[in-house]
Structure formats: C-alpha cells, structure tokens
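Onboarding guide, step 5: your first structure request.
Type a short instruction followed by the sequence, for example:

Predict the 3D structure of this protein.
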Amino acid sequence: MAKKVVIAGGGFAGFNLAKNLGNTNYEVVLIDRDNYIFFPPLLYQVATGFLEPSSISYPYRKMLRNMPNIHFKMGEIVRILPDQNIIELNIGKIDYDYLVLATGTETNYFGLENVRKNAIPMKTINDALDMRNYILKQLESATTFLHDKEKLKRTLSIVIAGGGPTGVEISGMLAEMKASVLRKDYPEFNNTGVRGDIYLVDGLPQLLSPMSKKSQENTYNSLKKLGVNIILNSQVKDYTDGKVILSNGQIIETDNLIWTAGVIAQKFEGLPDSYYGRGNRLICDEFNKVKGTENIYAIGDTCLQTHEAKFAHGHPQVAQVALQQGKNMSLNFKRMSGQKPIKAFEYNDKGSMAIIGRNKAVVDIPPGIHFKGFVAWFIWIFIHLVSLVHYRNKITTLYNWVGSYFTKDQALRMLIRPVRKQ
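The system replies with structure tokens like these:
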C-alpha cells in the first residue's frame, strides 16, 4: 500500500513539498487553515492598496487538480498523537505514516498585551485587508475634524515597529503615498498645516540587520530622504490611550501602530516541550526529522537545524530556506521509496533584498556583491514577479505595477470590509 504523507501547512515549504510529491507513489494530504496559498513578501502591497489579494494568492485545489495522489483538507491542528500516528484537526482525525510540520510562524507580541489588542499585525491576507481598511477609514475620519490639529496629527501619524524588510517596505510605501497619493486624494489636509509623521522603530542599532552594512546605510539614507523618522536602539514597550511608549522614554501620540517586530512558531499539544528550541521552533536533525521522533519532520520557519557551521543558531526564517527544505524533503521521500540513502539539508544562500520605494531598493548577493537604486529595484521586481505561484498572479501584478509606476497612483483604495476585528 502507498505510504501516507500528511503535510500540515501550505506555505512555501509545505506546498513545495506537496507539489514535488505529485504523481508519485505516495498518498499526500495537504492541510491548511486557508484554502489558498499566498505570497507573503507582497502582503504589504495589499495592505497599502497597490495590489488586490487575488494578485498574490491562488486556490490550492486548482493548483493541485492534476495531481490525483494529493488531497487537500482545510483545517487547523488541535493535537498530535505520535504514539498512534494520528493528527487531530478541528475537522476530525487523520492517520499518517509520515507527518511533516510546515506551519510557519505567527506574530510575536513579546507579551505586550496592549500591543496585541491595539496594533495592526502584518502576517496574513486578513491582516493586510484589515490594515488597508483601517488606514483608509482613519483618513476618511480625519476629514471630519480638520480644525482639531492635535487630533488630526494623531490620526495621520503612523508608527511601524520592526526594522526588517517588511517594516522598511511598508515605511517606504506609506511615505511615497503621503507625498503623492494622499496629497491628491485628500486636498482637505493640504491647508491645515498638519502633516502626519511616519516613524520606523527598531531595537537594533541598524535597519535590515541580516543584510550588508552598505544595504543598511543605503536603506537608512533613502528612508530619511523620503521623510521617515527612524528611531534605532529602542523598542516599543507599550501602546495605550493612543500613545506608543518606547524603551528610551520617548512617547509618540498616534492611533496607528503597525507591528512587524517579530514572529514565533506554533506549539502543538502532544509534542513535549523538550522538542522545541528558540522561538518555539522544532529541533531537527540534518534530515529535518524532529529529534525524539521516528516519523515526524519539520520544514520552513518552524524548523530549527544547527548542523551547518554557518548557521549554528539555525537558518534564517526566509522564503529561500523554506523552498529549499521543501524540495530536499521531497527528494528524500523519493529516495526512501526507492530504498536509497537520504541527503542532509544544505542551505544555499542566494542573497537577500528589500525594496524601499520607487526606483529604490537594496540587494545583497554572495559573496559580497551589492546593488542599490534602480538596478536593485529592477532585480527585486523581477525576482518577486517570477516567484508568484501562477501565471495569472504574474500578469495581474505586472499590470498593477506598470500602471502604478507611470501614474504614481493606484485605484484600489476601496473600503471592502470596513469593520476591523478587535
């Protein structure tokens, strides 16, 4: 009988594994809480109204329809019963021969309860839509109290917590929108003498800490030119009564805190605490097997491997690691099926990049190659375009980008779901 591989999580790692096991002699079950795969690096463009959700997402079932050995289930993990080889979901139980956990991460608020309740996260399509609708609603609301300058400034100002790629990209996009789009769409603000400030806050002494010093300096200088207020060596400690309180004692009055400051992996009932390492990541051997288990594996952001000297504290939680682990895991399953020795995972670092604004980006490619400005911006555009999962996504995204580039505008600022979840 065909061995049954259950894959929990359909992100870069899980979907790449499932796709590469298509039309093999394995029975594959792919589980995800949503019925679509999406492209997280472009979430911020959905959040700022430059792309629709359909431009960066595509249904699993349509992607897998020509792979009869793969079945999709929409559900969430309740517990894992490793002794029985059963995973229990909110929709029922599924048995497995091999279980692969590829559930990624969720937003980490570091125990800051007021931040969790009141900040705007940036992790899912729902988060991006909530952010877009919330900001648009704030702008519409601000037109009703133009003479209350203190309240107007608080409504228009935005704090972004987290100086990684997502924080940098949102900051740059909002700064450019403020300089062009908002000036045209909301002429009421032009004569008030009030301008909403954009703050980017990070606890480290530099932005984009995993990237090269040149990229960090270029990013810092470019954002400053766009008018972003950058606060380093300081963290958000609380957010209450419309006040963002920083660890350096500074207080910023705003009704808008966007949280991109950290992620944490999910813990599963049924797996002991000893299985987890830093950030709740599952401790795995060089073959992605969870240590202490016989047939449970972890790939992507939820996996912690320390066997490579260059990554003694674990691989970075980026898309390339997830894609490569998914591909290596699929090859190992094929080798196991053919009674061949399996291969340890080795990460091939292809570089990192971040977009700052129009014609502004930074790219680092090993060993030590650095690009900035228009060339880096073009590389970023090309890589992200070809990385989208379906040709339909590529066409619609390119169409939107070309229109936005030449007009410095876009037409997706509709309040689709005006009530933000609390």
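Each response can be followed by summary notes, for example: DSSP finds twelve helices and 25 strands in the chain.
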